[in-house]
Design goal:
Length: 363
């Protein structure tokens, strides 16, 4: 296991693919380690790591990662995994959500060819990893890479076979994955094609991106992968995006007033609000802005947050809701939040809609 980066920084664990070592992350880990504590464990039998007797499951490999984090003194970490590493990352996020901050899933097929991996485990136990190196490396990178071939052929056969068996027995509960997630595909990846990665992102309500290359974009496009991960893992990276979304939803006039009113007492709160609410939540792909306006209005009415309702009635109109649809939202909340709160919300909505109509006539 290798650990780099500032001791007090948030931790990220980088998990490689089967048959590769943590060194495949080198070019990605370097820029990450400038701002994060980067932990890189090895799989069983990879780069000299011990191999327990018996077989292995994804849960067993996940437990190996948790032990590595414990050894590094890390309680919670961002988890980024490629291929097998992505499978283990998804398992960790589902089974141990308290240990996972944010999740990155790169080139990971969550519906692998189980029979193929069972057969591969038997082949490697009989003939060693050299029996699968040529075909594997061909799928990993666009051009032949002798270093990757040597890396795979140096992996312990039993350790590799156990990892194959873990993939063959893959059983993930994706509904339990709640960590903010980024899914990254290789544009020409034969093992985890972009279409499947897009479906995974949709299932998780995750962000999605593609990098040029095959199954190891961390080797072929390390700068692009590092850029994507830094934007996903560091909250500060979302401030500019959050401000843009805040203006698009609430309008320049409202945001300009809020910014102008910022003082030493509220500055940190305004920064937090822009990064977290607008840069992280309102930008998630799982719901469109129109749907988010519906949910937000319902919650605000239920909370009796009358100081926020007018702002979000305006936002809802900007996001495409009609006056009739707003009335339906408010009437629906009356059933669950109570008539007095819905009645107050109707009065606020009536006033805002009248203001908007006047503004349109004057505009």
């Amino acid at each position: 296991m290798r650990v780099d980066g500032p001791a007090g920084a948030p931790a990220v664990v980088l998990l490689p693919g089967i048959g590769t070592t943590q060194s495949t992350w080198d070019a990605v880990a370097a820029p990450l380690a400038e701002q994060l504590r980067v932990v890189r464990p090895e799989w069983r039998g990879h780069d000299g790591t011990a191999v327990p007797p018996g077989t292995a499951s994804i849960a067993d490999l996940g437990a190996d990662v948790l032990r590595a984090l414990d050894e590094a003194g890390v309680d919670r970490a961002h988890v980024v995994g490629l291929s097998l590493g992505g499978m283990v990352g998804l398992w960790l996020a589902a089974a141990h959500p308290g240990r996972v901050r944010r999740l990155g899933v790169i080139c990971t097929n969550t519906d692998p060819d189980r029979a193929m991996f069972t057969e591969r485990a038997a082949l490697v136990r009989a003939e060693g990893t050299a029996a699968v190196s040529a075909r594997s490396v061909e799928g990993w990178v666009t051009r032949p890479d002798a270093r990757l071939t040597a890396m795979l052929e140096a992996v312990d056969a039993e350790g590799y076979a156990q990892c194959c068996e873990a993939i063959a027995g893959l059983d993930l509960d994706l509904d339990r994955v709640a960590a903010p997630t980024l899914v990254v595909a290789g544009s020409d990846d034969p093992a985890a094609p972009p279409a499947g990665m897009q479906r995974l992102a949709s299932t998780l309500g995750a962000g999605y991106a593609e990098a040029r290359g095959r199954h190891l974009p961390i080797v072929e496009q390390p700068r692009e992968i590092a850029r994507l991960l830094l934007a996903h893992l560091l909250p500060g990276a979302s401030f500019e995006q959050g401000m843009a979304v805040r203006r698009e939803v609430l309008g320049d006039a409202h945001v300009d007033r809020a910014v102008a009113a910022t003082d030493p007492l509220t500055a940190d709160f305004q920064d937090f609000l822009t990064r977290y609410a607008w840069g992280e939540v309102w930008t998630r792909p799982g719901l469109g802005r129109r749907d988010r306006s519906l949910v937000t209005l319902g919650v605000l009415v239920a909370l009796g947050a009358e100081g926020e309702i007018a702002m979000h009635v305006r936002a809802a109109v900007r996001n495409g809701l009609t006056a009739a649809e707003l009335a339906e939202v408010l009437q629906h909340t009356a059933l669950y939040a109570g008539l007095p709160r819905a009645n107050a919300a109707f009065a606020i909505a009536r006033r805002v809609l009248a203001e908007l109509e006047t503004e349109m006539e004057d505009g």
